[in-house]
Batch of 2 targets.
Target 1
Amino acid sequence: MKYFQLVWASLFRKKTRTLLTVLSLAMAFLLFGLLQAVNVLFSAPPTFAGADRLIVQSRVSFTEALPLAMRQQLRTVPGIEAITWRQWFGGIYQEPRNFFPQFATDPATFREVYPEYVMPEEQWRAFETTRTGAIVGRRLAERFGWQVGDKVPIQSTIWPQRDGNKTWTFDIVGIYDGRDEETRQRTGVMWINFDYFDEARQFARGLAGIYDVRVADAGQANAIAQAIDSLFANSPNETKTQSERDFQLGFFKQIGDIGLIVTLILIAVFFTILILTGNTMAQAVRERIPELAVLKTLGFPNGLVTALVLAEALLLCAIGGLAGMGLAQLIATGLARLPDFPPVPLNLAVWTQALVAIVALALAVGLPPALRAGRLRIVDALAGR
């Protein structure tokens, strides 16, 4: 801290240039924080809540429906504790921007496969016995101000009723919540009674989009998945069974390798910021060559002059980098409060990577001018050579 004021004064010798560089660094690390958090989200191991669940879909595509008769065959696979089924409904409420996930499911078996969702017993019974019944998550109910007893019209973008009408009216018979904070973040879904939906839809009756399977031992999940796929091999309804997390990430991976895309974006961003910040530091040192010569004349050794320039580069990168990561943390916290948006884990691992990137960037942009300053000859510097 002895030379902090000197480093600070040198850094802000050209205030406009420094502030613009800091702003560029902040934007770069804002992208770094959010994109790395997305990378962590996609590469994180499955949580306990979904570790014992498997998703059975058509081998062709998850958009290819499977017959309901398969549930009897699935029950013969050893290690399966509970089975439910669901179909993507795909609708909007009042206007197109009010889109949220909706699934038709079997009320009785749904709670067996998803025990982490909690709701009063009378609401579970109402979901089972009300043909037009639907339950909504706490976050979804708060988003639209829904209460138990409300009638909610949903305009389906896929499923017309038998009379051709695409507006379905559901009775909200329950509002479910999560048993822990992680599950509460995933209460932005509407679940409707499958029997009513299957009976009233115009086409594809007797089919379900996917099966959700809960296994007795999560450690045997892979073996059970292989057993399921073997059961339906060489049949008209071949299956692809995978973990719940892999199934969810499959939607995102349709657009490509998310990890590779994130990495390429970050390489482009940091290559640009490396050139910009490196130019700033090089120009700042060139302008101060006579001042650095004076410091050496006053007795500052070469190593100390080199360290001062490196400290200046580190301070510049730290201010911009930490500001950007702070903004990323605020944005991630705000996104986590949005309905239907998965929490972006800007955790200790992402912050550690950011700190390593700050130091690496500081060395890359600061070391060349610092070494030049350390090797500077007083006579040449004062003579302008």
Note: The chain has a mean pLDDT of 85.
Target 2
Amino acid sequence: MKPNTTSKQLVLQTSLALWLLVAAATGAEQTSLRLTLPPTWYGVPGVPISLYYDNIVLTEKPESYRFEVTCDIGRSEAKRWTVTPTDKDVGQHAFGVVVKSAQGKELQRAKTMLRIAPKDAGVNRNLRLLIVGDSLTHATIYPNEIGRLLSEPGNPKWTMLGTHKPASVKPGVAHEGYGGWTWAAFLTRYDAKLDHKLDEKGRRLSSPFLFPGADGKPALDIPRYFRENCAGQPPDVMTVLLGINDCFGASPDNAKTMDAHIAGTLDTAEKFLKAFRAAAPRTVFAIGLTTPPNSRESGFEANYKGKYHRWGWKRIQHRLVEQMLKRFAGREREGIHLVPTELNLDPVDGYPDNNGVHPNATGYQQIGASFYCWLKWWLQAKQQ
């Protein structure tokens, strides 16, 4: 029996509705993934580096997608692309990522450039390095790793600046990293009673860059910081790894307020960099892209007992990286560089089971390797 006209229309309408639903779902899937890569990332012969797929897309289930990498070096594995470059790999390598559904449908693609610096980049040069950050820096593991790598043959004669020298540091390692600190804290935090002394728990309550003025009120005085703590000489490079404490409390469920929160944080970062630039016109700033979370919800439950969740921070962190790329990418002529510390951090094996945002030793070492590889490329470019 042939359907009547009304039945035909109903079938067509139903088919159209189904098609629109599939198209909308596919579009939402493509949009929600938000594949994000920095313009460039870095490597050095002998130093393992990886791009972890979970860190470049916005999804709770990266295992549901297929990631295809195009690069003339390295290899793809289940959860990452990885390489330990050799001397013959020195140079630039085009790098592309295609994300597909489990059925093989292409959803998104993006590209970047992998730059491999020679092992002897900057050999015997003098390098003054200031490392600034929050609790990830306070732990001192990744500054130690930078120091270890810089101590290998073929490297510059390095000096780390900073007033924070915990007992766990390797010889010569120093930094300005403090648990719970933000971009704003380095501009404004000051305790007149303690000045620059530590409290009874060993915490710093005053920014190392703030000093009381003639009126007794604290003011940013970076030249004085250089005079009193750096033998009067500013750093050649200042690395900064901040953003977790600045944005952790943003609302991931309201895109408008989240973007406003992040924009305010980056405005503060600009003020901080501007103040340093005025005091140190030749210092180069290497800003680490805020690191991704532990892939396990159990890490967040151990820390926050249900108040904050992994997926909430993942959404904030991913948006923060997107906005940092928009704000700071392409400003190398201003002496502002981005270091993709978010790519080379294993969100599974680089974290303990019981912490949401603080890596284990493996993860911290991966952060240190990312900064080191950028430093070597910068040293090479400086030689040319």
Note: The chain has two domains: 40-116, 126-383.
